[in-house]
Amino acid sequence: MLLMRLNLSAFRLVTFLVPAALAAPASAQWDFDPDWEAPVDYYQTADGLTGSALRDQIHLIIEKDYFSGPDLGSQTQHRLNDYADAGPALDVLDQSFARSGIFDIPFVNHVYDNDDVLLTDPTPRNREHVWSASRHNPGGRDNIGRDYADLHNLRWAYASTNSSKSNRNFGGSPVGGGNGEGISSPYWYPGEEHKGDTARINFYMDVRYDGNMGQDPNSGDLVLVNGNPSSSGSQQGDLAAMLEWHYADPVSNFELRRNDIIFERSYEDEFGAVITPNNWLSQGNRNFAVDRPELVHSIFVDQQNDTQISVGGAPNADGSSSVDVQLGRVMQGQSAGSLGTASMTINKTGNDGTYYSITASGGATAEEGGASVEGRYNAFAMNAPGSRNIDVGLSGGVDTSSTGLQGGSITINNLDVTTNGGAGVGANDGDDVINVGVAVLAQRTVVSNTADFGMVLRDAAVSAGATLTTSGSDNERTRVNVATTGANGPASVTGGSGTLFDDASDTGSRTVEATFNTAGAHSGSVGLGVSTAENGGAGLTGEGAYADVQVGYTATVLDHANGSFDATLDDNTLTLDFGTVYQTASVADQSFDIFNLTSTVGFTAGLDLDSITPGGDAAAFGASLAPLSALAAGASAGFTASVDTTNSGSFIATYTIATSDEDLPGAAAGDPLVLTITADVQSVVTGDMNLDGVADADDLSFFVLAVEDLATYTNTVGIDPLNVGDLDMDNDVDADDVRLAADTFEVVGGGSVNRKDNFIAVDEALDVLDDGLLNASDDNFFNTLLETSKDYAWGDARGDLAGPGAVAGADGVIDANDIDFLFAVIAAMETSGADAAATLLDTMAVDGDGLSGFTEADVLIALNLADAAPTPGPGFDAEAWYAQIYGPIPEPATGVLCLAMLALLAPRRAARSRGQ
After folding, report:
1. Is 391 exposed, middle or buried (0-12, 13-18, 19+ CB in 10 A)?
2. Residue 328 — φ and ψ, nearest 5°?
3. In what order do the strands lie in the sheet with 107-109?
4. Structure pTM?
5. What is the rounded distance in angstroms from the CA atom of residue 500 to the CA atom of residue 508?
6. What is the pLDDT of residues 810-854, one digit of tens each?
7. Which helix (H) or strand (E) holds 340?
8. Counting C-beta atoms within 10 Å of the first and last residue's C-beta, which end of the chain has fewer, N or C?
C-alpha cells in the first residue's frame, strides 16, 4: 500500500444537515477487499496443529510485529501504543459509511448499540476496553502493559453505554428492542450486531496475553472461563456464550478491515484514498479469530468437531457431495442468452458450530440477498443442525461448442481443523461442489431393440417386449416424447414406459402385438413418432426434426400339428381286431404308429399327446400309449396293443388320445385320436385239440399232430397245444398226453378200460385219417398195426412194458403183450396178493426209472395207462371208483396197492382241475 498521512481536514463537516446518530444501513459496510486478509505466510507455522500446540503457536505469531524482521523467532513484540493515541486511531479503525446521497461525511460505529455516529458528534464517547480494564492484572490501568492499549481490544462507545456495561462479564440474551444491548443480569449483552465481534476480541485477548508463556511481564494472564467470574482477577466470562456468538454472528467486513488496518501501516479511506497515518495506528499483529475463525473450536472446545456440510442428496462416506444446477438449456453452438439464478441449500449436520468457505470458479456466482457470500467467513451456528439457502448463477458468456453442463462451480469447504471426530466430519469432511451451468444439448436419438416373438403358432395373437434406449444424459441431449402406439402390417405397438426421454427416464418399454396368418419366417418394423419436449414442445433454437423410432420384430410362424394313425392320410381313428382267440392262449401283440403330418415343410409345430382316456373293456386289453411332447413334423411314435385271454367273452375297448400343438405361444388343441381294440376270447375244453367244443376220439389225431409237428398244428388249429392238450400237466404235449387221451376218450365195453382196444382204436383212426395232416409213417402211433420187429427208441412209449415170453424189459413195440402184462399184474394182485404183484413188476417192469425194486416210478407206469380216475375231493369213494374200473375189490392185501395207486393219482388230478 502507498504510505500517506491522514488529513482530517479533508472531512467536510456538515453537522447541521445530519442527525446525531444513524442506524447502520446495509450499505454501511465496505465491500470485501482481499487485501484485508492475512499474508499467506502469516499463520504458516501453525498449519496442521490442533489443541494446545495450536494455541501456543498462535500466541507466538500474534505477539510479534510482523514487519520487524523476516524470522519470527527474531521479531520483537508488536508495537506498544500509548493509550492516549487510541482516540485518533479509533477514529480510523471504527469508521463506517453512512451515505445520505447529498453529502459524504465520515461516521464512526459505536460498539454494542451499533450506532453510526458523526465523527464530530459532541455526544460523549469513551475508549471502551472490551476485555474490561479492571480485569487486566496486574496494573493494566497504569498503561504499562500492551494489553491495556491493544487496539484490537478498544472500540468507540457512548460514555453512557460504557458506564452501564462497567466491567460485567458477557452473556445473557437481548434486552429490549433495537440491537438488544444492555444489562442481562448479571451479564452484559453486547447486542445482536456486536456479539460475534465481542467474542472474537475476547478470544484474541485470551491467546495473546497468556502469562504462562513468560512474555509481557507488565500484562496480565488473561483467561476466558465459563460463567460469571469475579472482577478481582484477570478472568472474563462467559466463554460458552461467546462460543455460540462466534458462530451465530460471523466475521464481518467491518472486522476484516479494522483487523488489517491495525496490522498494516496504511489504509484506504471511504473515498478510496490511501492514507498512511502516524505509527500510533499500527501494531503489526492480527486477530487470529477474525482471520481464521475456524481455529476457535480447536483452541477453546475440543478436537472432535462433529459437523458435516453437504449439498444435494446424501453425502459420500468422506462427507463430500455434489449437485448439478442447470440454469437453462440451449442447442450446441447457439447463444446461451440471459440466465437467472437458482436457489440451493447448504446443509450442516452435527451440533457443533463451524466456519466454511465458499469459492466460485468458471464464472459461477454465489449470493444471498444480492450480496456475494464468497470467502471463508461463512458459519453455521452451534447446538443444532442447520441449513442455508444461497442463490447460484453465472456471469459472463457460456461456451456452447461442447455438449454437457457448461459453466462454473462453487466449492464449499468445511474449514474446521479438528480430525478426531471421525470420517466425514470436521477437518475430515470432504469438499462439496455445486456445478452451475447451462445444459448444452445435442439432438437425442432413440433406438429400439428387435422384438423377437420366437416360434409362434399361425393365427395366434402373440406379444413380445421391446426396449427403447437413448444415449447421453439430460445435460447432453434434448428431451423428446416417443409415441406409445403404431402399426404396420400384422404388427402393432402399444404404450409402455418411457414416453418422455430425459435424464430421469432414458429407457422405456413397448409391447409389440401381432397375429400371423401364414407359416414361415416373418420380420418387419413399426415406426413410432418422436417429437421434442423442449420449451413446451416448441423446441429450442437450432433444434431439428426427429426421425421415427423403428421397432423391429421377427417371428418363426408354424402351422398347427396334425396327429394321425396314417403316414399320409389324416386318419384320426384306428381299429385293431384280434379276432377269435382262445382262453389262456398266448396272443401276439399288434403294433401301430401315431404320425405328426407335415402341413408346411420346415414350419409345422411339434405334436403333443396330452392324455389317454381308456373306455369300454379296457381291462381286457393293454396299450403302450403314453403322453409325449413335441413329436416332430413327419415323424412317428410306435406303440403296441395286447389282449388278455384270461377270461372268455367278446370284448371292445376305446382309447381317446388328446392332442395339441407343442408348448408355444398360440398352441391349440388338435382333433383327438381314437383307437378301438376288439377280440373274441373263446373258452376251451381240456383235450379239445380240434377246438370243436368236445374232448373225444376226434381229438386223438390232433394230439398226435401236435406231438409230431407242432408248427403245423399251431398254424392249422391256431392255438398253442399246451392250452388244451397238456393232460398230465408237465408243461409239454407229448406221447404221455396221447396215451392219456386214448384212455380217456375211448372206453370199450361195459364201462371198463380196455387199453389194448383203445391203443388199437387210436392207430386205426390214424390209419384212416385222410386230411393230409400226417405222414403215412405217423399213422400207427402205438405200433399196434405193425410187426413187433419195428425199431424203437428208448423212452418213446411208456406202454412198452414187456417182451415176448415175459422177458424182462421192453421189446421196442407196444402191443397186446404189454397190455396183457398189466392185466397179469392186476391178476397177480387179486390171486396172490401184493407181494406177488410186486415181484412180478420188479422182475419185468423195467420201463420207468430203471431201478430194481417196486417203486413209485413202477406204479406211475400203470397209472399212465389208467388215467381215467375222477378228481378226488370231498366225498370221493376211492374203493367204489376202483370197483367201477377194475371190478370187485380184491383181498385187503391187494387193496393196499390199489389205494396207494389212487393216492399217487389224486394230486395229479387235482392239479389238472385247477388249470396248472
Report:
1. middle
2. 175, 170
3. 21-23, 115-118, 107-109, 95-96
4. 0.60
5. 9
6. 555 555 555 555 556 555 555 665 555 555 554 443 333 333 433
7. none
8. C
